[in-house]
Structure formats: structure tokens, C-alpha cells
Amino acid sequence: MKSLDSAPSDSENGRLRAAGTIVSGPGREKDRSPEKPSQEDPRERVNRRWNEILQETRVAQTGIQILFGFLLSVAFTQRFERLGDFDHRVYVVTVVLGAAAIGALIAPVALHRFLSGSQMKDEVVVIAGRFMVCGMVLLALTIGCTLLLLLHTVLTDALAELLVGAVMAWFGAAWFLLPLVLKLRSARRADDGGRGRQAGRQQQ
């Protein structure tokens, strides 16, 4: 009769290892969880990118909807009638840009709704990303024109245009230039790492 404290045999150890356990000593077993994959598969990656686009769209849509609601209310104020032709033209351009920005930022949702189930999620993610960039450009222009319309009524023309130009330059640097610089820096670092690994293999 085998004792309970006796060590498992070699054949039992083999079966335990195959079952996903490690024999750490006589009569003692420790569970070993399977290793998780270090990289996500293509389907997980496209789903993650789509969820990120949805989150970004919600943030941008909130801003443009508030701004567009403000622009629509301006036309019904008494002071709007006293504005000059230049201000009226700026207002029309601003409203059109705001409407175009809303269309671009809602386009990813429409794409997903009409193409859902058509096995085109990869293409939808790529196109939705481009619509997001387009919507951000239109949103920046809408904000710039809105500032020009507001500042032009309380400041001199030159000062208003200077301040609007400074704000637009800030938007361009923070929204577009900085991500581009970081992307180029990451690509350069990846290229340097690849050349370093290749040189190390050649030395070996």
C-alpha cells in the first residue's frame, strides 16, 4: 500500500506536467497558469483601434456640438444685425465649417452602422481614422473663425487677427506637429534598433 507522503513516480510527474502543474517536492503540487501571448492578434488589434476611435469621437463631438449650438444662437441676437459685412461673412464661413466638422466626426458612426456585418472592419477603422483627422482640422478652423468673430467686435482688427493667428498656431503645434514629431522619432528609434540588432548578428 502506497503512503500518502510518498513522492510521485516519474510517470506521475509526466502526467502532472502535461496537466499544467509543477511538482515542487514530495506530495506537493503548484498550479502553473498558461502564459499569455505577448502580442495581440489582428482581430484584437482592429477592435482596440475601433474602440479608441469611438472614445476620441465622443470627446470631439461634445466640443463641436457646444460650439455649433452657440453659433446658431448668435444669429438671433439683436447685436448680430449691427455687425458689418465682414463679420457676417466670417459668421457664415464659421457655421459652414462647424457643420462640416460635425459631419466628419459623425461619419465613423455612420460607416460602422451601414457596414456592420460586412467583414470590412479593417477598412472601416482606416477610413474612420481619416475622418477623425479631417474633423479635427475643421474643428480647429471653426474655433479660429469663432474667435475672429468674437474678438473682432471688441478689439482692433490687427490685434484680433494676431491673437487668432497665435491660437491657430498653438492648435497646429499641439494637435498635429507634436504627434508627427513623436511618430518620426519613434520610427527613427525603431530603425536604429533594427540596425543595431542586425549589426550584432553580423558580429556573431
Automatic annotation (TrEMBL):
InterPro entries xref list: DUF6328, MFS_trans_sf
Region (Disordered): 1-46
Pfam family, one: DUF6328
Biased composition (Polar residues): 1-11
Ranges annotated as spanning the membrane: 59-78, 90-112, 124-150, 162-182
Keyword terms of this UniProt record: Membrane, Transmembrane, Transmembrane helix
Compositionally skewed regions (Basic and acidic residues) per UniProt: 27-46
Domain of life per record: Bacteria
Official protein name in the record: DUF6328 family protein
Organismal lineage: Bacteria, Bacillati, Actinomycetota, Actinomycetes, Kitasatosporales
